[in-house]
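Records of this kind hold a single protein each, on a pair of labelled lines. With that in mind, the following record should read easily:
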Amino acid sequence: MNFMERAVLLSRKALGHTSPNPPVGALIVKDGMIVGEGWTQSPGPGGWHAEREAIVKAGKKSSGGVLYTTLEPCNHQGRTPPCTQEIIKSGIKEVHVSLLDPNPEVNGDGVDRLKLAGIKVLIGEGKEQSGEILVPYLKFVTKGMPFVTVKYAMTLDGKIATYTGDSQWISGTKSRQYVHQLRSENDVILTGIGTVLADNPRLSVRDKSIPTYDFKQPLRVVVDSKGQIPLDSAVFSEHGETLLAVTERFAPSTKSKFRGKEIDVESIPEDENGRVDLKILLARLSNLGMITVLVESGPKLLGTFFDTGLVDKVEVFIAPKIIGGENAFSAVAGKGIEYLSDVMKLENIQVVTIGEDVLIKAYSHGVLSDCYK
């Protein structure tokens, strides 16, 4: 493992805990040895950036050292001092940067400041690996929208439940453990009212091996156009916050229903079908500083996400099981496409074996390449 690969590995420790700040990893090398490491600290704005973490841990050994960081250091005063200032003060002589930061407050200014101070800067090392971690942030700062990952489990014949609706469990134990890690790395877990009524899910991180499970829970969002969700639904009993997204027509009655329950009800304009407009909902979540959204829902809502082109990444578990039955539930409904020439193209495909299941991870066409520019 080279030094930049180590920095990318460190950046994973920040996933799900730093928004709207980016999850960055950094380390300092002196005489061929790592003398300090860091990653973006939580909670969100105000937490130390990765570069400062590494510099503090390295102390005086920073002087004359080489810094490796997965994203361009900032050069502006926010809730923390500029990272460029800390780098220059430390005496670091060389900086390796994976990706430039397109945030208008940075956008090359950090690199320019370091060069002006006489520090050698090299750009582009490990950009593909860093890009996979940083692409949600890059989308957030360039398009003002969160990064959407769709997750579901299905059988070899593409079913997510039997014709009676029984779906527990399609995937195996190890796959379900992985899902808790995936949840912990996202800001939002989003589902629909159909899933709540059918399965009464908790939508929380409950794996005690995950360091932050007991104090950091993703925001749970239920798309419930008509405000039908029962008061005793399991999502309300978990630690953390739950937000109900309802249409403007049903917002007054839903807010009245939950008055005094400390449940947030967000009024969202309707789409052409009279349901919550998902694009507007995602924009609202972005305004709250939410960078990543994990969708765990039934076929109808999944179909709408795909039909409207809102999916950036898929994580699909395939279990070695056959359900059969023409009335059994398939994974994705919605309108679908008319011709195969219109099919959603996926790239950067990874196939992983988890227990007895196979996990396929893939990105929508162009999602990753956009961040490498």
Remarks:
- The mean pLDDT is 89.
- The longest strand covers residues 147-155.
